[in-house]
Amino acid sequence: MNAKINIQVIPWWKKVLYFFPLQLLIVHLKKNYILLFYWIILFGIITGYVAGKYGVPYLFLLPEYRGEVSFLSYLLLGFSCGGFIMAFNISSYIMNGFRFPFLATTARPFHKYCYNNSIIPLAFIITYLYMLIRYQIKDEFLSINIVFINCLGFIIGVLIFIFIAFTYFLSTNKDLLKILGLKSEDEYKPRRVRARAVQDIIHRNNKWYRSIDKLREWPVTTYLAYPLKIQIARDCSHYDRTMLAHVL
Predict the structure, then answer these.
(1) How does residue 165 score in pLDDT terms, banded at 50, 70 and 90?
(2) Inter-residue contact 80 to 100 (CB < 8 Å)
(3) pLDDT at 237
(4) Average pLDDT in the chain
(5) From CA 238, how far away is CA 36, in angstroms rounded?
(6) Best CA proximity match to 27, nearest among 85, 87, 97, 90
(7) Are 219 and 24 in contact (CB under 8 A)?
(8) Contacts of 230 (CB under 8 A, 6+ apart)
(9) What digits encode the pLDDT tens for the residues 121-153?
């Protein structure tokens, strides 16, 4: 009931502007140039703008495995693409997770992050499937059934890797209540917990979570929950900062 009231109180423009997937996209555009560079290269390859004269796009549009273009070759390509997508999500979570402390109050924060960080990967998959279908029908004169099977192999390959990765992180990624051993948020009482984290690579004497207080949090009003439900981001100002860093 409270969630419904909060949704009505918040102006619609804040729900749109501070929508978590949109905020993540803005973060990438402002902070994560290296991650975007790899995506730009991949988009350029499948569209023929990068290394098109050397036939590199055909390695994606018409992949071979053991000298044959088949369902299996697209399955392997999709599996590799799924690996790249998860590498992107993990890298992005490491670099940007602390900017969104509300994640620590949600169940399975890493899964929520990946789910809301799907704009770029989905755009790539849709673009690739479009280029694949157009090339195989117009240039290779393949039947609709064969093109459908090839596309299906690619999609299944992507989903298999993502499923394996999420199954692993399901057992390792814990939320705030699980770490504290609480049944509900009402039982929470602020307390100091030492966060165990990796050291900063450049400044080895600094911990990454110590910089959280020095950086501006990115505002988030709404986020995408399973399956396609929009929820209000929970206020986490009453939580201890070190505890939130411990979860992330």
Answers:
(1) very high
(2) no
(3) 58
(4) 80
(5) 34
(6) 97
(7) no
(8) 15, 19, 222, 223, 224
(9) 999 999 999 999 999 999 889 999 999 999 999
**Residue type (1 letter), 202:** I
CA distances from 176 to 182, 234, 247 (A): 8, 13, 6
Tokens of 123: 């755009």
Between CA 231 and CA 237, with CA 235 as vertex, the angle to 5 degrees is: 160
Least confident of 24-28, 128-132, 156-160, 237-241: 237-241
CA dihedral 57, 58, 62, 64 (to 10 degrees): -110
Instruction: Report residue 173's pLDDT band, with 50, 70 and 90 as the boundaries.
Output: low
> What's at 131, amino acid-wise?
M
User: Residue 118, class by beta-carbon neighbours within 10 Å (0-12 exposed, 13-18 middle, 19+ buried)?
Assistant: middle
